[in-house]
Specification:
Length: about 80
């Protein structure tokens, strides 16, 4: 399924920063990726890559701020 919805870079940046703030204490490092990292003026999504110290704790941190979790796998 593809979506043609695009979001302004500033909006995506705010969301990515909120997620990064929630997971920062639980990860060894993180990086923005995808169209946001490339500097696109609009983004279809926000990509945040993390190297977790504790993957379960990172998942719980995201669940703590997410309104809806669409998929929760092991990686």
């Amino acid at each position: 399924m593809t979506h043609d919805i695009r979001f302004p870079r500033a909006v995506v940046g705010d969301v990515l920063e909120a997620i990064a703030s929630a997971v920062r204490p639980r990860v060894a490092c993180y990086a923005y990726a995808g169209s946001y990292r490339r500097g696109s003026p609009t983004c279809g999504d926000g990509d945040l890559l993390v190297v977790p110290d504790d993957a379960a704790a990172v998942r719980e941190a995201v669940r703590g701020i997410a309104e809806t979790v669409l998929y929760a796998g092991e990686s």
